[in-house]
Description:
Elements: E1 4-8, H1 19-30, E2 33-35, H2 40-53, E3 59-64, H3 66-80, E4 85-91, E5 109-116, E6 134-138, H4 151-162
Parallel strand pairs: 1-2, 1-3, 3-4, 4-5, 5-6
Helix pairs in contact: 1-4
Amino acid sequence: MGLFDVFIYGAGPTGPGYSNHVLTEMAQATGGNTYGRSEKAQMLSDIGAARANNPSEPINIVGYSRGAVAANEVSNQLASKDTKVDKLILIDPVTVTGNKGSIDVSKNAGEATVYSQKNGGPFPGTPGTAAPNVKNVDMTDKGSTHRSIPRDVKTPILEKLKNGR
């Protein structure tokens, strides 16, 4: 469809009931690719190959937890290669120790959305910087925990990705 969707797992398990499992479902729904957060070199290689076949192909990157931090880093690395990210979606971005401030969202994204919630257990997600391209969505009261992405968060993300087609 002329679109490259990347989904990056967080640190937890991928079985039913966990956010990584939801990312797998989202990738299947969009025809996207899933990666572990440490597979940045492979992501960049795959994106480069997709761009070689279609230089104007939009790129969307979705990351969860520590995978959201990796997604942000990949977006910044793509900026250094003059490759624009169409949509950057960060779900509960946290570092290994849990960051307490906001995440400095890559300015390489045409549109960036950061979903975060305060009831994430020991590692609550954090909002993104209030740059013009960043929209923060608080999902605290949406029934989420750090290990689960509620349907009323998953559905708008899928719609946002599918609307780019």
